[in-house]
Amino acid sequence: MTAYGHWIAGAWRAPEKGHYPVVNPATEEVVGEAPESTPAEVADAVAAARAAQDGWSRTARRERAAVLDRIADLLVERGKELVPLLQAETGATMRVASTMQVPVAADRFRRYARGAVEPDVIPLAPRAVGASALAPGGLLGAAAVRRPVGVVACITSYNFPIVNLAGKVAPALAMGNTVVAKPAPQDPLCCLELGPILREAGLPDGVFNVVTGSGPAAGEALVTHPGVDMVSFTGSSAVGKKIAETAGRSLKRTLMELGGKGAAVILEDADDKVIRSAIGAVGSVWSFHSGQVCTAPTRVLVHRSLYERVVAGLKHYAESLTVGDPVDNSTIVGPVISAAQRDRVEAHVAAARAEGARIVTGGTRPPVRPGFYVAPTLIADATPSMIVAREELFGPVVVAMPFDTDDEAVRIANGTAYGLYDYVFSGDTARAWALAARLRSGNVGINTVQRHPETPFGGFKESGTGRDGGSFGLAAYSELQSVVWPS
């Protein structure tokens, strides 16, 4: 078992306050020890990033691209070492850990290696400007140029720690920013392992730093530090609001990817093929990382004519899934991240039962010991006002509700505080396209839960502010500077 230090200015730093244990959600055993942060250590990490920022921002873009490419290569090479650690600290199944964690992180660094050399100048047509008291008249040329924001605090979520961090760090570095990362307290170890990998790839010392902590103190110190220019956060809407409030006092740039309560709307024109696709898509709430995905379609809104058929199909799907040890290749549903999260999900299910909803399957703790397991649960006949139909649970729970008209479906879908990712399943894609325009959601999937990697990603309402993804990520981590000159 390894006791890690902070990664600051290209070297390990022993923590002043010692360490805290990182627990495997499947075995309840300690995987490793992460460092506790003091405000002074966070300040040191910010100072290192600030000192390195000017040099990195003036590094040739092709050189920055080469470093990001080497990072991707090293992640692929070290995959066999990283995957077991990542699997152990997250509790993800081996299928998810080996295919959707390290390889996707490598892909993101590779994507922004290309992004580092994308054009960053938008030329503007010359304009004739008349003389004024300010200056003589003439023909003026101009351009809008993307410039680095500066020092970026990257605060990440526990569900996909290394992927989420790569999605922030890669575009930030491509644009010439420097980074102080603060991973989620539950599973920060692989994020700490990135430090030496990025240094080996040729990233200058201080450009990437990592601090951790078991509570909110490290994140609070990072967000409030005057040397931080931007905060990029992925996590709950409640924490996002606090960060936005704090960052707003010094007008820090923020990028917020927050909670979701995705609705999958199944219209009455769905044929057998579309219905099967919809059931598989909604079933991903159970089969993919135990529902710990902010984009998951955790509400399924079904036209009343198809409702019982879809509920029966989802029940069959849920009951076919193997719950158990995530290291076993036959396992589909592993644990949630912690005992506290398991208890929270169970409490929401119990409340739904008490409010009169029908627990179609699941709803009781599976007989798997040790570990923090929640059975795939389907709740039917919920009402839109029930907490289980409004709040993000972040667990393997689906809530089914019928509707009679498109207007009613839209009203239910839009009836939560969230607006991150919704889905429409229909035999008429033109109709689905029109319905998508009425959904107050940053993303809409039509007859699919697949994501296009180049689309802008973010949410409406309390699901966040700003957009990243593809070239939009370069814009997210840059400021626009206008440059004007006489022609």
From TrEMBL:
Pfam families for the chain: Aldedh (PF00171)
Keyword list, A-Z: Oxidoreductase
Keyword Oxidoreductase: yes
Presence of keyword Oxidoreductase: yes
InterPro entries documented for this protein: Ald_DH/histidinol_DH, Ald_DH_C, Ald_DH_N, Aldehyde_DH_dom
Superkingdom of source: Bacteria
Domain Aldehyde dehydrogenase: 12-483
Family the entry assigns: Belongs to the aldehyde dehydrogenase family.
Protein name (Swiss-Prot/TrEMBL): Aldehyde dehydrogenase family protein
Native species: Streptomyces luteosporeus
